[in-house]
Amino acid sequence: MDFDIADPSLAADGALRIEWARSRMPVLDSIRERFERDKPLAGIRIGACLHVTAETANLMTTLRAGGAEVALCASNPLSTQDDVAAALVADGVAVYAVRAEDADSYYRHIRTVLEAAPHITMDDGADLVTTLLKERPDLHPIGSTEETTTGVIRLRAMAADGVLRFPVVAVNDSATKHLFDNHHGTGQSSLDGILRATNLLFAGKTVVVIGYGHCGSGVAARASGLGARVVVVEVDPVRALSAAMEGFTVTTMANAARLGDVFITVTGNLHVIRGEHFDAMRDGAILANAGHFDVEIDLEALAARSTGKRRLRHELDEWKLQDGRRVLVVAEGRLVNLGAAEGHPAEVMDMSFANQALAAEWLVRDGKSLAPGVHRLPEHLDGEVAAIALKRLGGGLDLLTDEQARYLGSWEMGT
Ligand code: ADE
Fold first, then answer.
1. Which of 125, 160, 268, 363 has the highest CB neighbour number within 10 Å of its CB?
2. 10 Å Cβ neighbour count for 336?
């Protein structure tokens, strides 16, 4: 660590960043006001494993406004904003995270959060719940919340194996989370990360997007908007068809490997870009990962083909292959939007974290009656979150007339 977490100027920088993010988070702010009044989380200990960003800081202070005591660690070793961590610490929040921490420190911090015996855990990727289930049979939280697609997939696998012993709210599955955060948030912030690391002109480049779910389709749309020729690689036929109908070239990874100037993995799966693909790439190909874990680009296979690497720019490594070609990797193959930029903009995190706060409140109120397993937040909350967010954008919501409401409620239509 080359800074002091107790440094007041670092904390002051973080406080400004948090204040700016808060000014873009009206939905969370409206929940904060209600929490301040009603204290629905009084006496509740929350252990959170989330990206330590300005947006997360606003979630932490909202939970605290509701009466909770919070302890926070990082959900990725490279995503912590140290100034934000310092500001939270200065504000009395327990934060265990430092940018670029190693695996030992990352898991030590997760265990430290669990030492507080949280009533509720909050995850982005399910590392906290996984550690709890493996190492702390003595802990019996009311429940947990999960922010991201990878975490939800992991939790469903735990439920199928019969090891998930409490309810988890899949915040990711709320419409006001995945339709906005995953698509618009990942789309914009992943390109932001690549641009900050490379200062590349996207216009005219061939950009290969691997994975066309909510996140990948956002990345493809934004790359196309910047003038890139987008090539999509997908294993799901419906998603592949959807990419084709957006006008993108859809092909195999073996074929795409020869075509791309830039490759962005957004699959949540392992070794999506691997040895044979590096062998086929053009000199100077740029690789970035927008999936949760740093497993999508097989860096071991890249290292095995390389004579060495050097850091060219902030979060940009150049690998020299034995045949002289170069491959550039952004943010060490970790989540590019948080490793090389600042993550999703506050506007989308506003809705995601509003859902997180509502999920915590729901667990406190009704968690004891929820069965162990993965649950969605009640659907009406999507409408409430979206209506506030729409207002911020200046959009007016129309209302059905009484006649129209009656028509939709009847089965005698068309007459
Ligand atoms: N995940 C993606 N972007 C994020 C952000 N800005 N804050 C917290 N988690 C995130």
1. 363
2. 32
Query: Does residue 56 have its Cβ closer than 6 Å to ligand 1?
Result: yes
Element (H, E) at 98: none
- The Å distance, Cα 344 to ligand 1 centre, comes to 5
The contacts of residue 400 (CB under 8 Å, 6+ apart) are 408
Q: Which residues pair with 262 in a beta bridge?
A: 207, 286
Ligand 1 within 6 A of CB of 55: yes
pLDDT tier for residue 7 given thresholds of 50, 70 and 90: confident
What mean pLDDT value characterizes the chain? Answer: 96
Residue 266 lies in a domain: yes
Based on the fold, state whether residues 66 and 162 are members of the same structural domain: yes
Q: What is the rounded CA–CA span in Å between residue 26 and residue 7?
A: 30
Over residues 43-72, the pLDDT tens digits come to: 999 999 999 999 999 999 999 999 999 999
**Cβ 343 under 6 angstroms from ligand 1:** yes
**Residue 1 predicted with pLDDT over 70:** no
What's the domain count of the chain? 2
Binding site membership of 349 for ligand 1 (Cβ less than 6 Å): yes
Cα 204 to ligand 1 centroid, rounded to whole Å:
29
Q: What is the CATH number of the domain that holds 130?
A: 3.40.50.1480
What is the domain-level CATH number for residue 250?
3.40.50.720
Residues 6+ apart with CB under 8 A from 399: none
30 and 157 part of one domain = yes
Q: Are 253 and 233 in contact (CB under 8 A)?
A: yes
Give the CA distances from residue 31 to residues 122, 350, 355, in Å, rounded to whole numbers and listed in that order: 17, 11, 10
Q: Is 53 in the pocket of ligand 1 (CB under 6 A)?
A: yes
